[in-house]
Amino acid sequence: MTTAVRLAVAAGTLAVLIWSVGTSPFLDGLRAVDGAALAAASGLAVLTTVCCAWRWRIVARGLGVDLPLGTAVAAYYRSLFLNVTLPGGVVGDVHRGISHGRDTSDVGRALRAVAWERTAGQVVQVVVTVAVLLVLPSPVRATMPLVALALLAAAAALVLVTRARPPVRRLRRAAARDVRDGLLARRAWAPIALASVLVVAGHALTFLIAARTAGVTAPPSQLLPLALLVLLAAALPNIGGWGPREGVTAWAFAAAGLGASLGVATAVVYGVMVLVATLPGAAVLGVGILARRERVAHA
Fold it and tell me: How far is CA 232 from CA 36, 104, 201, 228, in A?
């Protein structure tokens, strides 16, 4: 699927949603945002961003690329800001990898570190989500045993396919070295898993705060599975963070008996909270631009 098609799907999701529920839930969500919610989101973002940067540093060092934690935190904030303001949702990660690669004179290895860091986080997120959805009531609980089996079958099939053809085997050996050195090394896998769990927890808590801010009164045990479903949808191609997230939130809230409109309002509150929480990344981006101009002026 091309980038244009992915963006068209995201835009179409928003268009269908507006046609279905109208603009009122979007406006209600914007009006509901308050200073307390934004402060909470910004505070939680510090935790999650530091954890993400720590995870990235561990993976990069495992692949033989030096990355100070302070540099990683600043670059990760910049990456998050670009991801939530530009179409696609991955521009910031590509920029982060290329910038780090230029600083270390190894763009290829730096991009691989970013790719494996994001992959590790998403794998842990899927595992946590499946575990929670198997335990707590949700609109998809009945299908979760099948989903868990399907994921295991897909993993087994991937292993078989990579062993079947020589070109794929060469790629598999290269990927296996990266995974062994960057993710599964004795001093790496536990911190990576811990950091990833903390990131998921921070994002889920941010969503729960958004729901409360939007006026949802359901207990956390009912909202947590919905939050994790929405967080998975947020990883899909989007337009500045918008699109699939709002669509899945509307569906999940409707299926849980909370109402699609309240789901859209919650998604809007969450989107604003996330945007404000990533604003330090705009400052990092601006400082970087000014520094480059200064270097060019004195070259």
Answer: 26, 32, 13, 6
